[in-house]
């Protein structure tokens, strides 16, 4: 099987096959605490260190959650590539992955060490004010907790 890098995937094809580690996975419930997840969100990273945001929505959440585990590497196929959401951009990329009931996710047993376990981007403190009102997502919680 021919593997594509995350930087290569686009809506131009529906036959992508990628191998990537799930660096982070979380439920998004909006402001509805205690309610079922609106979608399951993932940050995936490939062997070259390229990252992409992936999402399983509504009825697909349970299927995807039961099929994958944060920290493991999977081969992904039969997924959709769509434009990145304008309201949530954790990375400076054009596209995101939509995982569906038909998405195939197979755990990769023998993993080379080149798959990063963590994904982060550092911002200078002086640059934070320029991001106010922008659509680029910034996580400050870890930064704030390190200062305390």
TrEMBL record:
Locate the coiled-coil region(s) and give their ranges. Answer: none
Which Pfam families does this entry report, sorted A to Z? DUF223
Q: Gene3D superfamilies, alphabetically?
A: Nucleic acid-binding proteins
List, for all copies, the residue spans of the domain called Replication protein A 70 kDa DNA-binding subunit B/D first OB fold.
Answer: 5-105
The record ties this protein, via CDD domains, to: RPA1_DBD_A_like
Could you tell me what this protein is called? Answer: Replication protein A 70 kDa DNA-binding subunit B/D first OB fold domain-containing protein
């Amino acid at each position: 099987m021919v593997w594509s890098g995350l930087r290569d995937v686009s809506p131009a094809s529906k036959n992508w096959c990628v191998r990537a580690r799930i660096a982070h996975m979380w439920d998004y419930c909006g402001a509805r605490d205690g309610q079922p997840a609106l979608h399951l969100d993932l940050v995936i990273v490939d062997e070259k260190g390229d990252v992409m945001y992936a999402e399983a929505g509504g009825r697909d959440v349970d299927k995807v959650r039961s099929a994958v585990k944060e920290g493991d590497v999977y081969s992904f196929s039969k997924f959709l590539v769509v434009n990145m959401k304008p309201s949530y951009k954790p990375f400076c990329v054009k596209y995101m992955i939509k995982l569906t009931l038909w998405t195939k996710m197979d755990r990769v047993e023998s993993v080379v060490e080149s798959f990063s376990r963590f994904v982060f981007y550092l911002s200078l403190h002086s640059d934070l004010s320029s991001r106010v009102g922008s659509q680029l997502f910034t996580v400050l919680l870890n930064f704030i907790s390190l200062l305390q």
